[in-house]
Amino acid sequence: MSQKYLIRIAELERLLSEQAEALRQKDQQLSLVEETEAFLRSALTRAEEKIEEDEREIEHLRAQIEKLRRMLFGTRSEKLRREVELAEALLKQREQDSDRYSGREDDPQVPRQLRQSRHRRPLPAHLPREIHRLEPEESCCPECGGELDYLGEVSAEQLELVSSALKVIRTERVKKACTKC
Fold it and tell me: Residue ranges of the Transposase IS66 zinc-finger binding domain (predicted)?
C-alpha cells in the first residue's frame, strides 16, 4: 500500500478512537443524569410522604387539643392546662415543619385558619340528599344552531338543617357543548 493510504488509515483510526472516547464520556454523563433524576424523584416522594404525615399529625393534634380544652374548661385542672400548652406547642412546630416542607409561607398577622385552607372533607354519605338538576337555558348552539352534546356536570353540595334534621342539597349543573363548531 502506498504511504498516502497508510496515513489516511491512521488518521481515520485516530478519529474513530476520539469519537469512541467522546461517546463513552456522553454515556457516563447520561448515567450520572439518570442517577441524579432517580435520587431527586425519591427525595421528592419522601418529602411528599413527610408532608402527608405532618398533615395527619396536625389534624390529630388539633383534635387532641380540642378534647383537652373541653376537659380543661370543665374541671380547671393545672395538669390539663400544661398538657394543652404542650400540645399547642407541638402543633405549632408540626405546622411550621409542614409549611417548610411544602413551601407555604404564613403571614403572622392573619389567623392560620384564614391563611391556609387544608382539604375540605366531603359531606357524610349517610345523610339524605336532595338533588336539584340545573339544565342549560339553551338546547342548541348559539353560533351554528347545532345540537349541544352532554359534556358532564359540576356538583356542589350544601348542608342544610331542616326542622332539627340534616340533609344534603346537591346542585348539579349540566355542561353541554356543540360538536360542530
Answer: 138-181
